[in-house]
Amino acid sequence: MKAIIYCRVSTDKREQETSLARQKQELKDLASRHGFDIIDCIEEKESGYEIDRNGIFSMLEYFSEGKADCLLIQDESRLGRGNTKIALFHQLFKMNIPVYTAVHDGKLELSDSDSMVIDIVGIVEEYQRKIHNAKIKRGMQKAVREGYNPARNLANQHKAPGRERIDFPIEEVVRLREKNLTFREIASILNNLGYSVSKATVHRRYLEYQNT
Q1: Which residues are catalytically annotated?
Q2: Euclidean distance between the first and final Cα of the chain, in Å?
Q3: 102 touches 25 (CB < 8 A)
Q4: What pLDDT sits at residue 4?
Q5: 183: which of 21, 25, 71, 203 fits an S-S bond (Cβ 3.0–4.6 Å)?
Q6: Residues 6 or more apart from 33 whose CB is under 8 A from it?
């Protein structure tokens, strides 16, 4: 497997340099024992309670782009502390990224309390997704009741003359706004119809259209 090594200390004091070097060497030895290929070694001097860390985002980018398969850390506190630790482990587990630690000389073994919290976070996230989808469904039903027909309104957009063709039908955004749908609901409807567009883009294009 392709591995990312992540090392962290909380301050930039001189004595912490030794800790970083020790973490890095222990994790290189761990990778060697398990036959992992090291893609990158990320070192940070940041608080474990801080989630806005350059190294963390670099690490997640490797995984989201499929450039690495697993994470190596000295122990779970090196990834983060408190709520930050829970949030990061939850994100890694959602991405199906296994975590190996030097302390366990293998896969991470979370405490029962941490495992329970992560399970609860997953359940809450799933219900938030269900609520979001239900709101989209209700918004679409409301629009249809008031005369919105996506099959009719979107079928011939490629034939529209004049304006330069854009990524999604702005006229439909205007119609849906007139039916009091939010930009988030409109973006979700457009995504369900095959248009990959964000709420911010819908809002920006709507303002541009209104100002032309």
Answers
A1: 10
A2: 54
A3: no
A4: 97
A5: 203
A6: 105
